[in-house]
């Protein structure tokens, strides 16, 4: 059975929402994750690129759909690939409010943009 991890962060990259699927997939409980930076999930070798892209997305939000198999740092210290979709969240005027990642426990997008 496929389940979905949903992680929401504010414009500063602080996690504001973490569902049960995120607990199951990534190994951190909601109290452990909410209030922490997205570095909790981003492998160290990718953090510089992640924050550069996150900053651009928050400064100049666009509606676009990024779906790829994304590497995630899990609570046990392992890095795993999950089919994920990243979205910039905007208000009615187009200003960025944050971002949301949705990850599936099974399957692949067939796209691996990150090393």
Class by alpha and beta content:
alpha+beta
- The total tally of domains equals 1
Task: Determine the mean pLDDT.
Answer: 93
Strand-residue fraction? 25-35%
Q: What general form does the structure show? A: globular
Protein name: PAS domain S-box protein
Pfam families: PAS
Would you kindly provide a written description of the structure presented here, covering whatever features stand out?
With 115 residues, the chain is an alpha+beta fold. The protein has one domain: Beta-Lactamase (2-Layer Sandwich). It contains three helices and five strands; from the N terminus they run E-E-H-H-H-E-E-E. It has a five-stranded antiparallel β-sheet with strand order 2-1-5-4-3. The longest helix is centred in the middle third of the chain and has 13 residues, at 47-59. The termini are far apart. Residues 1-44 form the PAS domain. This is PAS domain S-box protein.
